[in-house]
Design goal:
The protein has about 170 residues and is mainly alpha-helical. It has helices spanning about 1-45, 55-75, 90-125, 140-160. The protein has one domain (about 1-160). Helix 3 packs antiparallel against helix 4 (about 140-160).
Amino acid sequence: MKLDRMGKTLKAVQTVVVKVSGFACGISIWTMALLIFAGAVERNFFGTNLLLNADEILGYLMVILFSLGLVVTLVYGGHVQIDIFYRHFPKALKRFCHPLFQGVGICCGLVISAGGIALAVDSYFRSRISSSSLEIPLYIPQSLIIFGGLAFAAEFLNRMLQGRDEA
């Protein structure tokens, strides 16, 4: 009974994380498109470059897309996995490989998070800020990498606990 309740709780948390991540990714994509368009219009029609921080902002938006997009892509069956060969495996081999692949996915998510932790802690203790006039503390965007990696690992763990055969 407790395991069933835990599964429902995991599913509810997954739903919230995926919706928030998907929304953040959508906003990021549209913001990136608008910034690139505005920069192109500004350079070509006005001969100016007032959006000096656009490159830095675009970089942060790409971090959001990468870290939060991993989970959304995995949940909706996108191409996080390599399935060119996997779909042609015999069922017996799939039953053997699938838990192995899920374990590798969990490890990848944890390694991504560990890298994000190392980056964020280093930036925090060295008081590193962005080199542009925005002067954003670098541990803030680097913290998104930690969250994205943990959410990615949690989704694989969720799949493993639910016993899903295929992603």
